[in-house]
Protein backbone atom coordinates (compact mmCIF):
# COMPACT_ATOMS: atom_id res chain seq x y z
CA UNK A 1 0.00 0.00 0.00
CA UNK A 2 1.43 3.33 -1.09
CA UNK A 3 0.67 6.42 0.97
CA UNK A 4 1.24 9.85 -0.43
CA UNK A 5 0.24 13.31 0.57
CA UNK A 6 0.42 14.66 -2.96
CA UNK A 7 -2.21 14.46 -5.68
CA UNK A 8 -0.43 11.70 -7.50
CA UNK A 9 1.96 8.88 -6.85
CA UNK A 10 5.20 10.00 -8.49
CA UNK A 11 6.07 7.81 -11.45
CA UNK A 12 2.70 6.08 -11.55
CA UNK A 13 -0.65 6.80 -13.07
CA UNK A 14 -3.96 6.70 -11.28
CA UNK A 15 -6.35 4.49 -13.21
CA UNK A 16 -9.23 4.33 -10.80
CA UNK A 17 -10.36 6.17 -7.70
CA UNK A 18 -12.69 5.28 -4.84
CA UNK A 19 -14.06 7.49 -2.09
CA UNK A 20 -12.43 8.82 1.04
CA UNK A 21 -10.89 6.23 3.33
CA UNK A 22 -10.08 7.09 6.92
CA UNK A 23 -8.55 5.71 10.06
CA UNK A 24 -8.96 7.12 13.51
CA UNK A 25 -7.98 6.24 17.01
CA UNK A 26 -8.14 7.69 20.51
CA UNK A 27 -5.37 6.59 22.84
CA UNK A 28 -4.38 7.40 26.39
CA UNK A 29 -1.28 6.79 28.49
CA UNK A 30 -1.59 5.26 31.93
CA UNK A 31 -1.92 7.57 34.88
CA UNK A 32 1.73 7.25 35.91
CA UNK A 33 2.80 8.75 32.59
CA UNK A 34 0.26 11.53 32.98
CA UNK A 35 1.68 12.40 36.39
CA UNK A 36 5.27 12.33 35.07
CA UNK A 37 4.24 14.56 32.18
CA UNK A 38 2.65 17.11 34.47
CA UNK A 39 5.88 17.19 36.50
CA UNK A 40 7.96 17.56 33.36
CA UNK A 41 5.71 20.41 32.36
CA UNK A 42 7.14 22.46 35.19
CA UNK A 43 10.72 22.29 33.94
CA UNK A 44 10.01 22.11 30.22
CA UNK A 45 11.51 19.84 27.57
CA UNK A 46 10.12 17.05 25.49
CA UNK A 47 7.27 15.02 26.94
CA UNK A 48 8.56 11.64 25.75
CA UNK A 49 5.50 9.79 26.97
CA UNK A 50 3.21 11.95 24.88
CA UNK A 51 5.49 11.88 21.83
CA UNK A 52 5.28 8.10 22.03
CA UNK A 53 1.53 8.31 22.49
CA UNK A 54 1.13 10.37 19.32
CA UNK A 55 3.36 7.99 17.36
CA UNK A 56 1.32 5.01 18.48
CA UNK A 57 -1.88 6.82 17.62
CA UNK A 58 -0.59 7.81 14.18
CA UNK A 59 0.43 4.24 13.42
CA UNK A 60 -2.92 2.98 14.60
CA UNK A 61 -4.77 5.47 12.41
CA UNK A 62 -2.64 4.63 9.34
CA UNK A 63 -3.19 0.89 9.84
CA UNK A 64 -6.93 1.40 10.03
CA UNK A 65 -6.99 3.64 6.97
CA UNK A 66 -4.97 1.05 5.06
CA UNK A 67 -7.44 -1.65 6.11
CA UNK A 68 -10.27 0.37 4.58
CA UNK A 69 -8.33 0.96 1.38
CA UNK A 70 -7.51 -2.75 1.11
CA UNK A 71 -11.16 -3.66 1.54
CA UNK A 72 -11.87 -1.61 -1.60
CA UNK A 73 -9.15 -3.26 -3.65
CA UNK A 74 -7.08 -0.06 -3.81
CA UNK A 75 -3.28 -0.13 -3.88
CA UNK A 76 -2.55 3.47 -2.86
CA UNK A 77 -3.97 6.29 -0.77
CA UNK A 78 -3.21 9.75 -2.07
CA UNK A 79 -3.62 13.18 -0.58
CA UNK A 80 -3.36 11.77 2.92
CA UNK A 81 -4.03 14.24 5.72
CA UNK A 82 -3.58 13.90 9.43
CA UNK A 83 -5.57 15.78 11.98
CA UNK A 84 -5.42 15.67 15.73
CA UNK A 85 -8.04 16.79 18.15
CA UNK A 86 -8.28 16.85 21.91
CA UNK A 87 -11.22 14.76 22.95
CA UNK A 88 -10.35 14.22 26.57
CA UNK A 89 -7.47 15.42 28.70
CA UNK A 90 -4.47 13.15 28.39
CA UNK A 91 -5.90 11.32 25.40
CA UNK A 92 -4.69 11.82 21.84
CA UNK A 93 -7.05 11.52 18.93
CA UNK A 94 -5.51 10.99 15.54
CA UNK A 95 -7.38 10.95 12.32
CA UNK A 96 -5.86 10.06 8.95
CA UNK A 97 -7.80 10.30 5.73
CA UNK A 98 -7.15 10.30 2.04
CA UNK A 99 -8.53 9.11 -1.31
CA UNK A 100 -8.13 5.44 -2.14
CA UNK A 101 -6.91 4.88 -5.71
CA UNK A 102 -5.55 2.20 -8.01
CA UNK A 103 -2.24 3.10 -9.62
CA UNK A 104 -0.33 1.41 -12.42
CA UNK B 1 -9.41 7.62 -14.38
CA UNK B 2 -12.64 5.84 -13.48
CA UNK B 3 -14.73 6.21 -10.34
CA UNK B 4 -15.56 3.03 -8.41
CA UNK B 5 -18.42 3.66 -5.95
CA UNK B 6 -17.69 0.67 -3.67
CA UNK B 7 -17.98 1.50 0.04
CA UNK B 8 -15.02 0.67 2.27
CA UNK B 9 -15.15 -1.80 5.17
CA UNK B 10 -17.08 0.12 7.80
CA UNK B 11 -15.77 -1.64 10.89
CA UNK B 12 -12.14 -0.60 10.55
CA UNK B 13 -12.35 2.36 12.91
CA UNK B 14 -14.20 0.64 15.75
CA UNK B 15 -12.71 -1.96 18.09
CA UNK B 16 -14.57 -5.22 18.23
CA UNK B 17 -14.56 -5.50 22.05
CA UNK B 18 -18.03 -5.43 23.58
CA UNK B 19 -18.47 -2.37 25.82
CA UNK B 20 -19.64 -4.48 28.77
CA UNK B 21 -16.57 -6.68 28.48
CA UNK B 22 -14.39 -3.60 28.36
CA UNK B 23 -16.17 -2.21 31.44
CA UNK B 24 -15.75 -5.44 33.39
CA UNK B 25 -12.03 -5.75 32.58
CA UNK B 26 -11.35 -2.15 33.50
CA UNK B 27 -13.34 -2.14 36.75
CA UNK B 28 -11.83 -5.39 38.00
CA UNK B 29 -8.31 -4.39 36.97
CA UNK B 30 -8.44 -0.95 38.54
CA UNK B 31 -10.06 -2.26 41.73
CA UNK B 32 -7.26 -4.81 42.10
CA UNK B 33 -4.65 -2.12 41.49
CA UNK B 34 -6.27 0.15 44.09
CA UNK B 35 -6.34 -2.63 46.69
CA UNK B 36 -2.70 -3.51 45.98
CA UNK B 37 -1.62 0.11 46.36
CA UNK B 38 -3.58 0.41 49.60
CA UNK B 39 -2.06 -2.79 51.02
CA UNK B 40 1.46 -1.65 50.08
CA UNK B 41 0.87 1.75 51.67
CA UNK B 42 -0.47 0.26 54.92
CA UNK B 43 2.51 -2.11 55.02
CA UNK B 44 4.74 0.95 54.62
CA UNK B 45 2.92 2.56 57.57
CA UNK B 46 3.68 -0.53 59.69
CA UNK B 47 7.36 -0.33 58.70
CA UNK B 48 7.49 3.35 59.49
CA UNK B 49 5.76 3.18 62.88
CA UNK B 50 8.73 1.89 64.93
CA UNK B 51 10.81 4.80 63.64
CA UNK B 52 8.44 7.43 65.00
CA UNK B 53 9.36 7.68 68.67
CA UNK B 54 6.74 9.01 71.09
CA UNK B 55 9.04 12.01 71.59
CA UNK B 56 9.05 12.75 67.86
CA UNK B 57 5.32 12.20 67.77
CA UNK B 58 4.80 14.63 70.62
CA UNK B 59 6.96 17.21 68.81
CA UNK B 60 5.02 16.86 65.57
CA UNK B 61 1.61 16.92 67.16
CA UNK B 62 2.30 19.71 69.61
CA UNK B 63 1.90 22.15 66.75
CA UNK B 64 -1.65 23.43 66.68
CA UNK B 65 -1.79 23.63 62.87
CA UNK B 66 -0.96 19.90 62.61
CA UNK B 67 -3.54 18.99 65.21
CA UNK B 68 -6.25 21.08 63.59
CA UNK B 69 -5.54 19.40 60.25
CA UNK B 70 -6.01 15.92 61.70
CA UNK B 71 -8.41 16.21 64.59
CA UNK B 72 -11.92 16.95 63.31
CA UNK B 73 -13.49 20.20 64.31
CA UNK B 74 -14.08 19.73 68.03
CA UNK B 75 -16.88 21.56 69.77
CA UNK B 76 -15.16 21.53 73.12
CA UNK B 77 -16.99 21.97 76.41
CA UNK B 78 -14.77 23.32 79.12
CA UNK B 79 -15.99 22.99 82.67
CA UNK B 80 -15.17 21.08 85.85
CA UNK B 81 -15.55 17.79 83.95
CA UNK B 82 -12.33 18.26 81.97
CA UNK B 83 -10.24 18.41 85.12
CA UNK B 84 -12.02 15.42 86.66
CA UNK B 85 -11.55 13.25 83.58
CA UNK B 86 -7.90 14.31 83.39
CA UNK B 87 -7.39 13.34 87.04
CA UNK B 88 -8.88 9.88 86.47
CA UNK B 89 -6.84 9.47 83.29
CA UNK B 90 -3.62 10.34 85.16
CA UNK B 91 -4.40 7.79 87.87
CA UNK B 92 -4.92 5.06 85.26
CA UNK B 93 -1.89 5.99 83.16
CA UNK B 94 0.16 5.81 86.37
CA UNK B 95 -0.17 2.01 86.14
CA UNK B 96 1.60 2.06 82.76
CA UNK B 97 5.17 2.31 84.09
CA UNK B 98 7.03 3.76 81.15
CA UNK B 99 4.30 5.84 79.59
CA UNK B 100 6.10 8.08 77.08
CA UNK B 101 3.06 10.23 76.36
CA UNK B 102 1.84 13.22 78.23
CA UNK B 103 -1.89 12.71 77.93
CA UNK B 104 -4.39 15.52 77.60
CA UNK B 105 -8.17 15.51 77.76
CA UNK B 106 -10.81 17.21 75.66
CA UNK B 107 -14.56 16.96 76.05
CA UNK B 108 -16.52 16.99 72.82
CA UNK B 109 -20.01 18.38 72.77
CA UNK B 110 -21.78 15.40 71.18
CA UNK B 111 -24.80 13.34 72.22
CA UNK B 112 -23.39 10.01 71.01
CA UNK B 113 -21.42 8.17 73.69
CA UNK B 114 -17.92 7.88 72.26
CA UNK B 115 -14.24 8.30 73.02
CA UNK B 116 -11.24 8.90 70.77
CA UNK B 117 -7.46 8.65 70.90
CA UNK B 118 -5.87 11.35 68.76
CA UNK B 119 -2.19 11.61 67.80
CA UNK B 120 -0.23 13.75 70.21
CA UNK B 121 -1.72 12.15 73.34
CA UNK B 122 -5.16 13.73 73.20
CA UNK B 123 -7.96 11.66 74.71
CA UNK B 124 -11.37 13.00 73.75
CA UNK B 125 -14.64 11.90 75.33
CA UNK B 126 -18.10 13.05 74.33
CA UNK B 127 -20.61 14.66 76.66
CA UNK B 128 -22.90 11.79 75.63
CA UNK B 129 -20.44 9.33 77.16
CA UNK B 130 -20.19 11.31 80.39
CA UNK B 131 -23.98 11.31 80.67
CA UNK B 132 -24.09 7.57 80.11
CA UNK B 133 -21.47 6.40 82.64
CA UNK B 134 -22.88 5.58 86.09
CA UNK B 135 -19.69 5.03 88.06
CA UNK B 136 -16.04 5.93 88.25
CA UNK B 137 -15.17 2.37 87.20
CA UNK B 138 -17.14 2.55 83.97
CA UNK B 139 -15.52 5.79 82.86
CA UNK B 140 -12.14 4.41 83.93
CA UNK B 141 -12.42 1.47 81.58
CA UNK B 142 -13.29 3.66 78.58
CA UNK B 143 -10.29 5.92 79.32
CA UNK B 144 -7.99 2.93 79.95
CA UNK B 145 -9.08 1.47 76.62
CA UNK B 146 -7.98 4.69 74.88
CA UNK B 147 -4.66 4.56 76.75
CA UNK B 148 -4.34 1.03 75.34
CA UNK B 149 -4.61 2.52 71.83
CA UNK B 150 -1.72 4.85 72.64
CA UNK B 151 0.38 1.97 73.92
CA UNK B 152 -0.27 -0.05 70.74
CA UNK B 153 0.22 3.10 68.65
CA UNK B 154 -3.13 2.56 66.97
CA UNK B 155 -3.68 6.30 66.81
CA UNK B 156 -0.73 6.67 64.40
CA UNK B 157 -1.65 3.49 62.56
CA UNK B 158 -5.17 4.80 62.09
CA UNK B 159 -3.84 8.11 60.85
CA UNK B 160 -1.43 6.40 58.43
CA UNK B 161 -4.17 4.15 57.15
CA UNK B 162 -6.52 7.09 56.76
CA UNK B 163 -3.89 8.95 54.74
CA UNK B 164 -3.18 5.88 52.59
CA UNK B 165 -6.88 5.50 51.98
CA UNK B 166 -7.35 9.15 51.10
CA UNK B 167 -4.42 8.90 48.69
CA UNK B 168 -5.82 5.81 46.96
CA UNK B 169 -9.27 7.31 46.62
CA UNK B 170 -7.74 10.58 45.47
CA UNK B 171 -5.63 8.99 42.76
CA UNK B 172 -8.18 6.43 41.65
CA UNK B 173 -11.05 8.88 42.00
CA UNK B 174 -9.79 11.50 39.57
CA UNK B 175 -10.35 10.86 35.89
CA UNK B 176 -12.92 8.21 36.71
CA UNK B 177 -16.41 9.27 37.51
CA UNK B 178 -17.63 10.20 40.95
CA UNK B 179 -19.44 6.88 41.09
CA UNK B 180 -16.22 4.91 40.88
CA UNK B 181 -14.66 6.92 43.69
CA UNK B 182 -17.79 6.46 45.75
CA UNK B 183 -17.68 2.69 45.26
CA UNK B 184 -14.01 2.54 46.18
CA UNK B 185 -14.71 4.73 49.20
CA UNK B 186 -17.35 2.48 50.69
CA UNK B 187 -15.35 -0.70 50.05
CA UNK B 188 -12.22 0.76 51.64
CA UNK B 189 -14.11 2.00 54.67
CA UNK B 190 -15.41 -1.50 55.32
CA UNK B 191 -11.96 -3.01 54.80
CA UNK B 192 -10.36 -0.54 57.18
CA UNK B 193 -13.04 -1.30 59.78
CA UNK B 194 -12.21 -5.00 59.49
CA UNK B 195 -8.57 -4.35 60.21
CA UNK B 196 -9.21 -2.49 63.44
CA UNK B 197 -10.93 -5.43 65.20
CA UNK B 198 -7.70 -6.88 66.55
CA UNK B 199 -6.52 -3.45 67.62
CA UNK B 200 -9.75 -2.95 69.57
CA UNK B 201 -9.36 -6.24 71.39
CA UNK B 202 -5.73 -5.50 72.21
CA UNK B 203 -6.74 -2.11 73.61
CA UNK B 204 -9.51 -3.81 75.62
CA UNK B 205 -6.97 -6.14 77.18
CA UNK B 206 -4.63 -3.34 78.17
CA UNK B 207 -7.54 -1.27 79.43
CA UNK B 208 -8.77 -4.11 81.65
CA UNK B 209 -5.27 -4.52 83.07
CA UNK B 210 -5.12 -0.82 84.01
CA UNK B 211 -8.59 -0.95 85.60
CA UNK B 212 -7.63 -4.08 87.55
CA UNK B 213 -4.47 -2.36 88.80
CA UNK B 214 -6.43 0.71 89.86
CA UNK B 215 -9.43 -0.88 91.59
CA UNK B 216 -8.38 -4.46 92.28
CA UNK B 217 -11.31 -5.73 90.18
CA UNK B 218 -12.72 -5.07 86.69
CA UNK B 219 -16.36 -4.68 87.70
CA UNK B 220 -18.30 -2.18 85.64
CA UNK B 221 -16.09 -2.45 82.58
CA UNK B 222 -17.89 -5.04 80.49
CA UNK B 223 -21.26 -4.23 81.99
CA UNK B 224 -21.03 -0.71 80.64
CA UNK B 225 -20.33 -1.96 77.13
CA UNK B 226 -23.21 -4.39 77.35
CA UNK B 227 -25.51 -1.64 78.55
CA UNK B 228 -24.76 0.82 75.70
CA UNK B 229 -27.37 0.94 72.94
CA UNK B 230 -26.31 -1.16 69.99
CA UNK B 231 -26.28 0.33 66.47
CA UNK B 232 -29.17 -1.02 64.40
CA UNK B 233 -27.46 -2.52 61.42
CA UNK B 234 -24.27 -4.11 60.28
CA UNK B 235 -22.94 -1.37 57.99
CA UNK B 236 -23.41 1.30 60.59
CA UNK B 237 -21.60 -0.84 63.12
CA UNK B 238 -18.70 -1.27 60.76
CA UNK B 239 -18.39 2.43 60.09
CA UNK B 240 -18.73 3.13 63.79
CA UNK B 241 -15.91 0.69 64.40
CA UNK B 242 -13.66 2.44 61.95
CA UNK B 243 -14.31 6.00 62.99
CA UNK B 244 -14.65 5.57 66.70
CA UNK B 245 -13.08 3.22 69.14
CA UNK B 246 -15.88 0.99 70.23
CA UNK B 247 -17.54 -1.41 67.84
CA UNK B 248 -19.83 -3.09 70.34
CA UNK B 249 -19.54 -6.52 68.86
CA UNK B 250 -20.44 -9.61 70.85
CA UNK B 251 -17.06 -11.10 69.91
CA UNK B 252 -15.26 -8.28 71.68
CA UNK B 253 -17.33 -8.67 74.82
CA UNK B 254 -16.76 -12.44 74.73
CA UNK B 255 -13.03 -11.87 74.33
CA UNK B 256 -13.04 -9.61 77.39
CA UNK B 257 -14.86 -12.22 79.51
CA UNK B 258 -12.37 -14.85 78.36
CA UNK B 259 -9.43 -12.64 79.30
CA UNK B 260 -10.93 -11.88 82.73
CA UNK B 261 -11.39 -15.58 83.45
CA UNK B 262 -7.89 -16.41 82.23
CA UNK B 263 -6.19 -13.76 84.39
CA UNK B 264 -8.49 -14.38 87.33
CA UNK B 265 -9.63 -10.75 87.49
CA UNK B 266 -12.79 -10.48 89.58
CA UNK B 267 -15.68 -9.27 87.42
CA UNK B 268 -17.49 -7.80 90.40
CA UNK B 269 -16.56 -5.46 93.16
CA UNK B 270 -17.60 -2.23 94.78
CA UNK B 271 -18.17 0.54 92.22
CA UNK B 272 -16.99 4.03 93.16
CA UNK B 273 -19.41 6.89 92.50
CA UNK B 274 -18.52 9.53 89.93
CA UNK B 275 -16.53 12.49 91.18
CA UNK B 276 -18.66 15.46 92.17
CA UNK B 277 -17.25 17.64 89.38
CA UNK B 278 -18.47 15.08 86.84
CA UNK B 279 -21.90 14.34 88.25
CA UNK B 280 -22.79 18.02 88.58
CA UNK B 281 -20.54 20.05 86.26
CA UNK B 282 -19.61 23.58 87.31
CA UNK B 283 -18.49 26.12 84.72
CA UNK B 284 -14.86 27.16 84.38
CA UNK B 285 -11.71 25.13 84.74
CA UNK C 1 -31.77 10.23 56.80
CA UNK C 2 -29.40 7.71 58.30
CA UNK C 3 -25.99 7.03 56.85
CA UNK C 4 -26.91 3.69 55.28
CA UNK C 5 -29.67 5.11 53.11
CA UNK C 6 -27.39 7.95 52.17
CA UNK C 7 -24.61 5.56 51.18
CA UNK C 8 -27.07 3.46 49.17
CA UNK C 9 -28.34 6.52 47.32
CA UNK C 10 -24.83 7.80 46.67
CA UNK C 11 -23.78 4.43 45.29
CA UNK C 12 -27.02 3.39 43.69
CA UNK C 13 -27.77 6.49 41.62
CA UNK C 14 -24.57 6.47 39.58
CA UNK C 15 -24.89 2.70 39.11
CA UNK C 16 -28.47 3.05 37.96
CA UNK C 17 -27.43 5.84 35.62
CA UNK C 18 -24.65 3.65 34.21
CA UNK C 19 -27.00 0.76 33.48
CA UNK C 20 -29.66 3.03 32.01
CA UNK C 21 -27.25 4.97 29.80
CA UNK C 22 -25.65 1.76 28.60
CA UNK C 23 -29.01 0.61 27.23
CA UNK C 24 -30.14 3.96 25.84
CA UNK C 25 -26.68 4.64 24.42
CA UNK C 26 -26.44 1.35 22.56
CA UNK C 27 -29.97 1.71 21.25
CA UNK C 28 -29.32 5.19 19.88
CA UNK C 29 -26.04 3.98 18.40
CA UNK C 30 -27.59 0.96 16.69
CA UNK C 31 -30.28 3.12 15.09
CA UNK C 32 -27.78 5.72 13.97
CA UNK C 33 -25.59 3.09 12.33
CA UNK C 34 -28.58 1.62 10.49
CA UNK C 35 -29.43 5.05 9.13
CA UNK C 36 -25.79 5.82 8.24
CA UNK C 37 -25.37 2.57 6.31
CA UNK C 38 -28.61 3.07 4.40
CA UNK C 39 -27.71 6.62 3.39
CA UNK C 40 -24.14 5.68 2.48
CA UNK C 41 -25.54 3.16 0.03
CA UNK C 42 -27.91 5.77 -1.43
CA UNK C 43 -25.26 8.43 -1.91
CA UNK C 44 -22.36 6.27 -2.99
CA UNK C 45 -22.61 7.38 -6.64
CA UNK C 46 -21.52 10.87 -5.61
CA UNK C 47 -17.76 10.86 -5.07
CA UNK C 48 -16.33 12.85 -2.17
CA UNK C 49 -12.57 12.79 -2.52
CA UNK C 50 -9.52 14.60 -1.20
CA UNK C 51 -8.04 15.53 -4.62
CA UNK C 52 -7.21 19.21 -4.77
CA UNK C 53 -7.73 19.38 -8.52
CA UNK C 54 -10.39 17.43 -10.40
CA UNK C 55 -9.35 14.59 -12.75
CA UNK C 56 -8.26 16.10 -16.10
CA UNK C 57 -10.96 14.59 -18.29
CA UNK C 58 -13.81 16.14 -16.27
CA UNK C 59 -15.40 19.14 -17.93
CA UNK C 60 -16.54 21.39 -15.13
CA UNK C 61 -19.37 23.82 -15.61
CA UNK C 62 -19.79 25.17 -12.11
CA UNK C 63 -18.45 24.80 -8.55
CA UNK C 64 -19.14 25.95 -4.98
CA UNK C 65 -18.34 25.32 -1.35
CA UNK C 66 -20.39 22.66 0.40
CA UNK C 67 -20.25 21.49 4.00
CA UNK C 68 -21.88 19.23 6.52
CA UNK C 69 -21.54 19.18 10.26
CA UNK C 70 -22.83 17.30 13.27
CA UNK C 71 -22.44 17.30 17.05
CA UNK C 72 -22.81 13.95 18.75
CA UNK C 73 -23.07 13.60 22.49
CA UNK C 74 -21.11 11.22 24.63
CA UNK C 75 -23.33 9.31 27.04
CA UNK C 76 -22.60 8.77 30.73
CA UNK C 77 -21.61 5.12 30.29
CA UNK C 78 -19.10 5.93 27.55
CA UNK C 79 -17.61 8.76 29.60
CA UNK C 80 -17.31 6.41 32.57
CA UNK C 81 -15.50 3.80 30.45
CA UNK C 82 -13.20 6.44 28.98
CA UNK C 83 -12.43 7.73 32.47
CA UNK C 84 -11.39 4.26 33.60
CA UNK C 85 -9.35 3.76 30.44
CA UNK C 86 -7.33 6.90 31.22
CA UNK C 87 -5.77 5.08 34.20
CA UNK C 88 -4.40 2.13 32.33
CA UNK C 89 -3.78 3.67 28.93
CA UNK C 90 -4.39 2.16 25.52
CA UNK C 91 -7.23 2.59 23.08
CA UNK C 92 -10.15 4.57 24.43
CA UNK C 93 -12.59 2.26 22.71
CA UNK C 94 -15.77 3.86 23.93
CA UNK C 95 -15.04 7.07 21.98
CA UNK C 96 -14.31 5.24 18.74
CA UNK C 97 -17.92 4.71 17.75
CA UNK C 98 -18.72 8.33 18.58
CA UNK C 99 -15.97 9.58 16.28
CA UNK C 100 -16.84 7.09 13.57
CA UNK C 101 -20.52 8.04 13.64
CA UNK C 102 -19.79 11.77 13.74
CA UNK C 103 -17.42 11.68 10.75
CA UNK C 104 -19.63 9.51 8.61
CA UNK C 105 -22.65 11.63 9.47
CA UNK C 106 -20.78 14.84 8.58
CA UNK C 107 -19.70 13.42 5.20
CA UNK C 108 -23.27 12.24 4.55
CA UNK C 109 -24.58 15.75 5.24
CA UNK C 110 -21.91 17.20 2.99
CA UNK C 111 -23.02 14.86 0.23
CA UNK C 112 -26.68 15.65 0.85
CA UNK C 113 -25.95 19.37 0.53
CA UNK C 114 -23.95 18.76 -2.65
CA UNK C 115 -26.69 16.59 -4.15
CA UNK C 116 -29.35 19.18 -3.30
CA UNK C 117 -27.30 21.87 -5.05
CA UNK C 118 -26.97 19.65 -8.13
CA UNK C 119 -23.24 18.92 -7.80
CA UNK C 120 -21.95 15.65 -9.23
CA UNK C 121 -18.85 15.36 -7.05
CA UNK C 122 -17.09 16.99 -4.11
CA UNK C 123 -13.32 17.50 -4.25
CA UNK C 124 -10.75 18.62 -1.70
CA UNK C 125 -12.81 17.25 1.17
CA UNK C 126 -11.51 18.17 4.62
CA UNK C 127 -12.70 17.08 8.03
CA UNK C 128 -12.30 19.01 11.25
CA UNK C 129 -13.02 17.61 14.68
CA UNK C 130 -13.64 19.66 17.78
CA UNK C 131 -14.74 18.95 21.31
CA UNK C 132 -17.60 20.84 22.82
CA UNK C 133 -16.47 21.44 26.39
CA UNK C 134 -18.67 21.65 29.42
CA UNK C 135 -18.25 21.81 33.17
CA UNK C 136 -16.85 24.67 35.17
CA UNK C 137 -13.25 23.87 34.32
CA UNK C 138 -14.08 23.25 30.67
CA UNK C 139 -12.42 19.83 30.87
CA UNK C 140 -15.65 17.92 30.54
CA UNK C 141 -16.95 16.70 27.24
CA UNK C 142 -20.40 17.64 26.06
CA UNK C 143 -20.12 16.33 22.54
CA UNK C 144 -17.99 15.95 19.48
CA UNK C 145 -18.35 18.26 16.58
CA UNK C 146 -17.25 17.23 13.12
CA UNK C 147 -17.27 19.56 10.16
CA UNK C 148 -16.78 18.23 6.64
CA UNK C 149 -16.28 20.69 3.81
CA UNK C 150 -15.19 20.61 0.20
CA UNK C 151 -15.80 22.02 -3.24
CA UNK C 152 -18.82 20.75 -5.09
CA UNK C 153 -18.47 20.60 -8.89
CA UNK C 154 -20.99 20.36 -11.73
CA UNK C 155 -20.02 18.40 -14.81
CA UNK C 156 -21.10 19.00 -18.41
CA UNK C 157 -21.55 15.28 -19.01
CA UNK C 158 -23.56 14.22 -15.95
CA UNK C 159 -22.08 11.69 -13.57
CA UNK C 160 -18.31 11.13 -13.28
Quick overview:
The complex is a heterotrimer of chains A (about 100), B (about 280) and C (about 160). The model of chain A has no long low-confidence stretch (mean pLDDT about 90).
Biggest sheet descriptor of chain B:
3 strands, mixed
Q: What is the average of the pLDDT values of chain C?
A: 88
- List low-pLDDT spans of chain C: none
The radius of gyration over CA of chain C amounts to 21 Å
Tell me the strand percentage band of chain B.
5-15%
Radius of gyration of chain B: 25 Å
What count of helical segments of chain C does DSSP give?
Answer: 3
Between the first and last Cα atoms of chain C, what is the distance in angstroms? 71 Å
What's the SSE pattern of chain B?
A: EHHHHEEEHHHHHHHH
Label the structural class of chain C: alpha+beta
| Contiguous helical run count of chain B | 12
Characterize the structure shown.
The complex is a heterotrimer of chains A (104), B (285) and C (160). With 104 residues, chain A is α+β, with helices and mostly antiparallel strands. Chain A is 37% helix and 38% strand. Chain A has a four-stranded mixed sheet with strand order 1-3-4-2. Chain A is elongated. The model of chain A has no long low-confidence stretch (mean pLDDT 90). Chain B contains twelve helices and four strands, in the order βααααβββαααααααα. A three-stranded mixed sheet of chain B has the order 2-4-3. With 160 residues, chain C is α+β, with helices and mostly antiparallel strands. Helix content of chain C is 48%, strand content 29%. The N and C termini of chain C lie far apart (71 Å). Classes of the chains: A alpha+beta (104), B mainly alpha (285), C alpha+beta (160). Chains in contact: A-B, A-C, B-C. The B-C interface holds B 1, 3, 5-7, 10, 13-15, 17, 19-20, 22-23, 26-27, 29-30, 33, 172, 175-180, 182-183, 186, 233, 235-236, 239 and C 2-4, 7, 10-11, 13-15, 17-18, 22, 26, 37, 40-41, 44-45, 47, 55-57, 76-81, 83-88, 91, 93-94, 96-97, 99-100, 104, 160. β2 (14-28) of chain A pairs parallel with β1 (2-3) of chain B, so a sheet runs across the interface.
Which helices and strands appear, and what pairs or packs with what?
The complex is a heterotrimer of chains A (104), B (285) and C (160).
Chain A: E1 2-3, E2 14-28, H1 31-43, H2 48-72, E3 76-85, E4 91-103
Parallel strand pairs in A: 1-3
Antiparallel strand pairs in A: 2-4, 3-4
Chain B: E1 2-3, H1 19-48, H2 54-61, H3 64-70, H4 80-93, E2 104-108, E3 115-118, E4 122-126, H5 127-132, H6 136-151, H7 154-173, H8 178-215, H9 221-227, H10 234-243, H11 250-263, H12 276-279
Parallel strand pairs in B: 2-4
Antiparallel strand pairs in B: 3-4
Chain C: H1 3-42, E1 60-73, H2 76-88, E2 90-91, H3 93-116, E3 121-134, E4 140-155
Antiparallel strand pairs in C: 1-4, 3-4
